[in-house]
Specification:
This protein has eight helices and three strands, in the order αβββααααααα. With 143 residues, it is mainly alpha-helical.
Length: 143
């Protein structure tokens, strides 16, 4: 019988003692904390951790598009990335409100989709990002 590795035992003890919280909270001293006692105010996260989270969040956005707009996979590279960028930023529920833009993309009219994206409150909120995303929506080469 294999004994439990010390690191696994320590992890179990820390989860028991610190708790496992999947949403940020304020600890007993008021520090923003997440996970198993990760003090975000003092330590933050590493680049590797941020990129790991990014990969997970991209997968969520793509799964939302697959479930709700499966035609998106057939778009040229530029519009596909632009739509994924918007879904990442807005989430599917809010992106689904861009009905005219989505219809234009589904019909292959990237220029109209770009104009629809720019004619939105979202465009005013995200600043230069809107122009970059609209440029992706409007062209099919993916540059």
């Amino acid at each position: 019988m294999t004994d439990i590795r010390p690191a696994d035992r320590l992890a179990a003890e820390l989860i028991r003692d610190e708790g496992l919280r999947l949403r940020p909270y304020r600890d007993s001293l008021g520090h923003l904390t997440i996970g198993v006692g990760r003090n975000l105010d003092a330590r933050g996260i590493s680049r590797a951790e941020a990129l790991f989270l990014l990969g997970n969040d991209i997968a969520i956005a793509e799964a939302d598009l697959d479930a709700n707009a499966p035609w998106w996979r057939e778009l040229p590279a530029g519009p596909r990335r632009g739509l994924a960028n918007m879904c990442f930023n807005l989430g599917w529920p809010r992106l689904s409100g861009f009905a005219h833009m989505l219809a234009a993309l589904a019909a292959g009219d990237g220029e109209r989709a770009a104009a629809e994206a720019l004619d939105s409150r979202w465009a005013a909120q995200v600043g230069p990002r809107a122009a970059r995303v609209a440029a992706l929506l409007g062209r099919g080469d993916g540059r």
